[in-house]
Amino acid sequence: MRNFSVIGSGIMGRGIAYTAALSGFDVILHDIKESALENAKQYIQEEMKKSAERGYIKSGDAEAALKRITYTESFEKASQQADVVIEAVLEKIELKIDVFKRLDQHCPPHALLATNTSTMSPTEIGAQISRPEKLVAMHFFNPVHKMKLIEIIRGLETSDDTVALAKKVGEKLGKETVEVNEFPGFVTSRMNCLIGNEAMNMLQEGVASAEDIDKALKLGLNHPMGPLELADLVGLDTRLRNMEYLYHTLGEKYRPCPLLIKYVKAGRLGRKSGSGFYDYGTRQGG
Fold first, then answer.
1. 1 CB-contact burial (10 Å; exposed 0-12 / middle 13-18 / buried 19+)
2. Its pTM surpasses 0.85
3. Residue closest to 87 by CA, chosen among 58, 105, 113, 122
4. Which residues are registered as beta bridge partners of 86?
5. CA dist., res. 275 & res. 240, Å (int)
6. Contact 82, 3 (CB under 8 A)
7. Cα separations (Å) of 208 from 180, 199, 214, 250, 276?
8. Beta strands per DSSP E along 107-148
9. Which pLDDT tens digit goes with each residue over 173-198?
10. Residue pLDDT, tens place only, 241-285
11. Are 182 and 156 in contact (CB under 8 A)?
């Protein structure tokens, strides 16, 4: 396991690429947009620099890691020699299936194929390719380089060898892993979406301000981050897609809060748009 490919250079994809490069993998980061790759490259370089300046990593290690990352718009280049592939595109099942159909065509037979989905079915994705036994879900958490956990979710056809390999990859990335049998939302997303959605309902009902709801959970329940600021970090559009999927598969208790729907329609998507439940001083139109 040397060649590590990441498909999708958004928040999660670039975080996975950063972590993999620091862990010694040769990384190829793919996106269909040159501008997205440029943004990812700038983010990774800045994070490496900050981590080195703060003493979290050695300057030489940061420089070596940056040299191990290749950025490409070519899907074939990103997949042809991959030992490990992590898909990190939008949480849309049709899009993920399309990515894995293409990976099935181009990746070497031995390649580990992993989806970074937080809610969706590796069984459904695996059913569309010729090697479902090689496909597994590896759910990373944001920010990837700081969060210690990877959820490993086996689909119906996922082999024991694939699960073992996924755990080995997680270990090399410096992460702890938990193995989860497939069910919508797995473990963390089901709990996180419920807590976040209830916080949004309380804000909508005027129970307390966003700041006080978050403060209550941080100080009263020892959460490291409040549910509303966490939703802003994840992206409210991403959270809404997750909620809609869980509502469709698990029922009424996952019905998205109307306030979340309203914010997404208004373009208030969280940190990435400049405003969400909080304002970040860089409000973007849209």
1. middle
2. no
3. 113
4. 6, 114
5. 16
6. yes
7. 35, 9, 10, 28, 17
8. 112-115, 135-139
9. 999 999 998 888 888 889 999 999 99
10. 999 989 999 999 999 999 999 999 999 999 999 999 999 986 554
11. yes
